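Per-record layout

source: Terribacillus halophilus
name: Bacillithiol system protein YtxJ
length: 112
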Amino acid sequence: MEAKVIQNQEEFQDVLNREAAFYLLKHSLTCPISARAKQEYDRYSLDTQLPMYTLYVQEARELSNMIAQRYEVKHESPQTLLFQNNQVIWHTSHHDITETALQEQEAGIDRR
């Protein structure tokens, strides 16, 4: 399942209302480290049923800042956040965004 792009707070709120758990990648369109992280994220999106979303920080800075503030997770780029029940239950950034890391975190989600 390919990651969908979200661009504003309304779209993000829709995702929160619709999905019990999902990944969100904060991706910089100009950073080579972010490009590598996005490759890992996109590869993993093909092997999971967990919904995956991407936010382009240059195009949705207001949303990115709101998420950092609301969930008290310092903004980094690239950064992956795992949401469950409207809470960030895990996050990582930069070179730690790997298919293996995403898979390990997904395995720990309570699917009840």
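summary: The mean pLDDT is 94. The radius of gyration is 13 Å.
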